[in-house]
Design goal:
The complex is a heterodimer of chains A (153) and B (200). Chain A has 153 residues and is an alpha+beta fold. Chain A is built from 3 helices and 10 strands. With 200 residues, chain B is an alpha/beta fold. The longest helix of chain B is centred in the first third of the chain and has 17 residues. Chain B has a 5-stranded mixed sheet, covered by helices on one side. Classes of the chains: A alpha+beta (153), B alpha/beta (200). Chain B: Pfam families: LpoB.
């Protein structure tokens, strides 16, 4: 009984310690996870598989890029991307296609918006993208989860 | 001994639940990022609409034949906003016409600047300041062959738990001489806003 009372009396200091530590550690925005799966620059018509890059192994387990096709349509490079989910629940994704010219220089950098894509359980879905100008001869693409803050205290 | 653990635990969970008050912080963000601040028409919708319409127009076979050896001249009529929101539809047409112009397949005339052009030509012709041999002449402009026009409509539904908005954007290309609609396409956007019961 004596011991219990002692413990009770020493609590204000523990409180203050906890409070301070929470203030130091907490109240901090954790940057969201923005990595995903994608490719490096692919020249039109080339086999895509050797260009695949996985930056987010967790996402790569739930999703794979099953096909990438490209062709010239009215002088403009058109890309057809097939995504397959291996996860039973809906995946909320975003994808972006970037364009490069013959010399590997970016065509209209920063102007290709992230597009949102809902991939339902085990679904295979195809999305298309068209180069903004005829200069674009190579492309790269990237798929990521909708970035959400893990913890925000 | 029990109390020794319970009180700090309660304190931590209270702090976690109530959260800390955030200081306001200014950051530069990604202009191309998906924006979901609220359910209204936003930057992501504008980018999606502009990109899809431009892509559809550029790869359409009809437009392919129109642009074989020539760059047709287009005039952009306004997009009618039939939604319940205030949306700057000129910003949508600006994005679309800029993308089309940059693709190198079309040329545009800008009806929004006719008054300024007239003023400048009048100054050149009769201001007495410009060399008459170098002054630009009236009546030399090229008339538009096609008109780009469209509608933006929405259906909004909501109950106490969630709200849903559906946008439909229609764009058409009309041959001004024959009155034929040469190309048309529409794109749809659905957005829902609901409550998340467990969220941090």
């Amino acid at each position: 009984m004596q011991k219990l009372t002692q413990g009770y009396h020493s609590q204000p200091s523990i409180f203050i310690l906890l409070f301070i530590s929470l203030f130091i550690v907490g109240c901090k925005n954790v940057p969201p996870v923005t990595s995903g799966v994608g490719t490096s620059q692919i020249t039109a018509g080339e086999e895509y598989s050797k260009y695949l890059q996985v930056h987010n192994p967790k996402l790569a387990k739930q999703l794979y890029i099953s096909d990438i096709k490209s062709r010239l349509q009215q002088d403009l490079l058109e890309v057809n991307l097939t995504l397959t989910s291996t996860y039973k629940k809906t995946l909320q994704l975003q994808y972006q296609v970037n364009w490069f010219d013959n010399d590997g220089f970016a065509v209209e950098p920063g102007k290709s918006p992230w597009k949102s894509l809902d991939l339902h359980g085990m679904q295979t879905q195809t999305v298309k993208a068209l180069a903004p100008t005829a200069k674009a001869t190579t492309f790269s693409l990237y798929v990521r989860e909708v970035p959400e803050k893990a913890f925000k205290f | 001994m029990k109390k020794f653990f319970i009180l700090p635990a309660v304190a931590i969970s209270l702090l976690a639940i109530s959260g800390c008050t955030n200081k306001s912080v200014v950051r530069y963000g990604d202009a191309a990022a998906v924006e979901t601040t609220d359910i209204n028409f936003g930057s992501t919708d504008l980018q999606k609409v502009a990109a899809e319409m431009t892509d559809s127009l550029l790869i359409s076979p009809v437009v392919g034949t129109l642009t074989v050896n020539t760059r047709p001249v287009i005039f952009v009529e306004s997009i009618k906003n039939k939604t319940s929101e205030h949306i700057d539809t000129e910003s949508i047409t600006d994005s679309i016409s800029t993308k089309l112009l940059r693709s190198g397949k079309f040329r545009f005339v800008d009806m929004g600047r006719v008054a300024s052009v007239r003023e400048q030509l009048q100054y050149q012709q009769s201001g007495g300041m410009v060399d008459t041999s170098k002054a630009k002449q009236f009546g030399q402009q090229i008339g538009a062959q096609y008109m780009l026009y469209g509608n933006l409509a929405s259906i909004v539904k909501s109950n106490q738990d969630q709200s849903d908005v559906y946008y439909k954007f229609t764009l058409r290309l009309m041959d001004l001489e024959s009155g034929l609609v040469e190309w048309a396409d529409e794109t749809e956007i659905r957005k829902t806003k609901g409550k998340e019961y467990i969220s941090w």
